[in-house]
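At your convenience, could you comment on the folded chain following this short note?
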Amino acid sequence: MIDSFAVYLSQKGRSENTIKTYCGVIHTFSSWLETKDKNLHELTQQNVQEYIDFLESEKRSVSTINKIFNTINTFAKSQDRIEITENIKRSKIKIDYVAPDFLTEEEVSALLKKAKADASKRNTAIVFALLYTGVRVSELCLLNRDDIKLNHKSQTGQMVVRNEQENERIIPLSKELVHKLHEYLTSRNDEHEALFVSNYQKRIAARTVQHMLKEEYGVYPHKLRHTFCYDLVRKGVDLSIVAQLSGHSDVNVTRQYLQAIEDIVS
């Protein structure tokens, strides 16, 4: 089951380190279950609750318990058994703050300069799209041409973004992104519905995007997402709007960027 979980995570575009960490969490959980004469194959909601209670009794940090629970929740999704993580009670203690990792203004400038010089209009458009919309790499790969509305003359546009839960949000596009997307789309001579396609004319995969960004630009997609959120908060955009644009279901996640700014100022 853990091997199949690794495959599931890989298909979702998770990095090798993330896959290793997630599988490690589930392996530890499985070992704990065995001490209780239980196993992953017959996992119940009560088992999950008992494990969370055990972690709290061991005085594990709230952030650690939340990460473990989120991993178990992802595991449950991979098994189509999301009900086993519903209504699990956890400590109400404030979650430990972890500053998001984002690019500095100098790093953004250097990244954009390199992206503009890239011979691949697709790669350039991907960098601009991730940086100026804050979409997750999985959401980027799900985008179709029809999800993009561009008015090249007025240099305005919008993007309809869908996540894996099929929730939608609309993100306005910057002039620079409109220009880069227009350049990329007009260079295409295929009729594939996907906004971004691979060199083999198939919908681009998350791992392909991750590999390209790492090899060509030395950056990971999520860092560009963090940069997008941080920049909006830094400019004074209301947290609820930032949460809506970035697809955060909990505004407290967005609030971390405000804390990051306060840390820099102090």
